[in-house]
Amino acid sequence: CPEWPEAEKAEKLARGAALKWASGVFYRPDKLEGLGHYRSREAQRNSSIQSRLKSTVQSHLEGVSTGLEQLRSAAGDVQSVRQDLCAVRWHLLGSADGFQRLALLRAVVMEHAQLAAVVRALPQLSSGKGHRARPQRALVCGTQLLEAHAGLMALERLQENITSQLHGSSSLPSDQALGVVESFFAGLQELSDALAQQLWRIVGGGMRLVREDPALFVSAVRIIEREESVDDALLLGPHAHRFPTPGRPKAWRQRFYQVMQETIAAAHFKAAHVDMKGPGLGRHLATLQSDILMELRVVKDLMVQCCPPHYDILSICTRMYHQGLSDYLQDILSRDLDKQEIFTLLSWVLHVYQSPEMMGHPDLLPEVDVSILGPLVSPEVVEQMERKYVGKVKVSDVTEWMRRTLEVEFKEWFREEEPEMDHLGFFQSALPIIVMQMLDENIRVASLVTDSLQQKVYAMAMDELEAFLIRSKDRSTPKHYISYLLVLLNNNMIPVEREQADLDGLEPPRDTLWVLCMFQPLYAQLPSRKWLSGAQLVNSMCEVIDKYMRDFSHVRNPVFTFLLAESEHLVMNHYVRALMEKKMVCRSTEERTQLSTRLLQDASQLQELFHNLGLAESEQTLQVIFALQELIRLQDPALLSLEVLGFMTKYPDISDEHVSILLDLRGDVSKEVRNVVLEMMAQNPQSLPENYQPIFSNILVPAPELPFCLRKGKCA
């Protein structure tokens, strides 16, 4: 059948399976005898199956018929219910006015119930008048605080009970009922405020009361604790947030701490009449020191016993004093203070505050530890005040003293005789000694505050001293300029001898070595063929050095040793710098040999001179001239790359520009050899070792001269 294609497909499969089975069973002739028996058996089976199918289909058809009947019956019932609901709806709409009248009646009933609750509470309200009178009388007496507070709490409990009864109904209490209750308890808040004011007066005088009348202070603390327990019960108890309680939470413990802090600030940190100028600031800080120490002793010994442990009253008071004093000092430091006031404040903050004389007093330890509260004044403010102090010292003391001393000293410099000598043969003068004593005193005073302030004052003093020496340099007129300059250097060493352990030596300004400019005319002659021909140039240099070293012998150590080393380094520097000027190019092997010999002889003579003057060869920098002459003496230019590599190892600050000039000075280096040498230097960069004394990095290479060319012509 076309409506059931699955049935047709199943039938085909069944037929195919049956044919396959039959062909297999009846394939043999001996099986054909049972064919009739098999046919009758299959006919009976088919008849049985058809009968069961008919029975099943008939049963399903009867069930469907029953279901349809039930659906028709249910549809009728639904229609009947719908009609009934419509009728009920019309009846409800007709009764709306009656329901509104019932709502008004319900409100009247609720108000009656609340008024009845108020009427039932009238005996309690009547007895509450006596409760209200008792705390008022106790407050008038001023000392019966616990009795006054007990009456106040009774009234508050009564108010809470009546209010809870009113809120216990299913709706909000009426305005009339609330009005009756509020009218009775109208003065309760004023009574609570009056008690609070009495408590805060007691807390404000706590330092005195714990010594004179601790019972009164303890009563105030007990009242505060009672109120805190009520606040906690209302906020955290089972009926928390059920309905608002007037005047709660009171938070009297926080107010207790606030009153303590305000009292401390008013007593110590808001005194407008205090004299802060000059010695007045020191006296004021001394008063703060004694008062704060005394009050913290009172807190530790007496007030701690009057407060519960969880108040942690000693730590909190310590923090109050620390923070209040920090803010107070910040305000003072923001003013225009003179140097003495800055010194007094810094010394007090950094040395007195945490010392055993104040916050580190044995009576406070170990309970009081202000180190955990941070610095009293921030390091940034301390740094700022140190710079301000140095500036004021410089303006008020150092610069003016230097100017006056310089005026007097100039008159001494124009005398015809040399300055006086001490018993050791060193030049001396009284006026520079006064200047150095003044600088030494300022450095010593600064060391009493901090090491950083000492270093700042020390650096300022050295800058001013160097400026003083620069202003002193006028060699055109004074006859004994060098002698008087050495007087300054001798006096420059006074702070070092006195404070050697703190200041690690005081180097004189390098500008005092300007006298060695006498070498400049001599350096202008090298390298030249005149210089190659004899030793006159180095002999003249040795004479100049020997002359000045005789003058320097009147200077104390370590300045003399420093001047000697600086002179040797300056001689070497200018000598090598003159070689780098490219004034000469060797034209033959003989000239190269002559040049290297001249370099060797000059270096040996200069080295011996400085050695005889007291400078060890290991401390001399003239060794670089010996190394340079080795580069010039080398016969085979092809080996220059190896020689330069060894030179770079000893003197890693030499550059390819320096090497190029030395190769030019030889006069026999081809372009290919030059490129090999420079490429080798690029491939083997050297790093400067620690404590290496620069040689070539202080010697500038002159810029190459550009060829002179005319337009459309050949370059010269």
Automatic annotation (TrEMBL):
GO terms for biological process: exocyst localization; exocytosis. InterPro entries: EXOC3/Sec6, EXOC3/Sec6_C. Pfam families: Sec6 (PF06046). GO terms for cellular component: exocyst. The keyword S-adenosyl-L-methionine does not apply. Coiled coil: none annotated. It comes from the Eukaryota. One of its GO terms (molecular function) is SNARE binding. Keywords: Exocytosis. PANTHER family: EXOCYST COMPLEX COMPONENT 3-LIKE PROTEIN, EXOCYST COMPLEX COMPONENT SEC6-RELATED. Belongs to the SEC6 family. This is Exocyst complex component 3 like 1. It comes from Chelonoidis abingdonii. The gene is EXOC3L1.
